[in-house]
């Protein structure tokens, strides 16, 4: 069985869709042809690759192993093609960027605009994921680059660039806090606050800070969504504890103001640009790295 054979294309499509019929629709071929190739390969391996269930096709243990290697083979072929393009000196190509939802409102749109202006031949494919799964997705070959918030494990990654963003309070431009360049938590305790709730990571950070300072915030509202907190602040309900990264679009537009919180126990938010250390980065990916690094500098609070 040769890598990138017809069977491999069929196998990946079935594994992706958990269905021969859906794979056939994607590939625009007969399902019987796909099934025939899979059965033939299972016969050669003397081991099933899929469980045939009423709900569809599910990979067996052997199928999972083949699926992992097949995806890596596909990425390796893409790397080869990119290196050949690099030898030609071509300044075009596609770059798959994984990113958390927190960057979707301001950072990523600005990034795409910047890249289209500086490198019109580079197409940026954006894949928004839960931040906790970004490292795994990057290492499994689902992206060329990833922007990760507070990465916990970077052993298998190369961190190309990282910036820190302060935590603080977001408020309306006419709020008294705006007169200060930075504030301590005790100075804000008397103002009505919109409190972040789980699953927002800032919820546990704020709870720890108030407990350490032995402060009881004046709760005006609670919300488990950053956009909801921003909307409540804009409506004048209270001030909100967020990171600059969460509100940089509104601050840049002058809709809201951000006042950093200072103190020994105030952790900044880290944004890291990373790649799989085993992957070759194409010329287009290097160009995207430069553009992302520029944007990270521009958006640092």
Automatic annotation (TrEMBL):
UniProt xrefs under InterPro entries: HTH-type_LysR_regulators, LysR_HTH_N, LysR_subst-bd, WH-like_DNA-bd_sf, WH_DNA-bd_sf
One term of GO molecular function: DNA binding
Keyword DNA-binding: yes
Pfam families attached to this UniProt entry: HTH_1 (PF00126), LysR_substrate (PF03466)
Gene Ontology CC: cytosol
Span of the signal peptide: none
PROSITE patterns cross-referenced by the UniProt entry: HTH_LYSR (PS50931)
Record-linked Gene3D superfamilies: 3.40.190.290, Winged helix-like DNA-binding domain superfamily/Winged helix DNA-binding domain
Domain of life: Bacteria
Domain annotation HTH lysR-type: ranges: 8-60
Keywords attached to this entry: DNA-binding, Transcription, Transcription regulation
Record-stated family: Belongs to the LysR transcriptional regulatory family.
Protein name (database record): LysR family transcriptional regulator
Taxonomic classification: Bacteria, Pseudomonadati, Pseudomonadota, Alphaproteobacteria, Acetobacterales
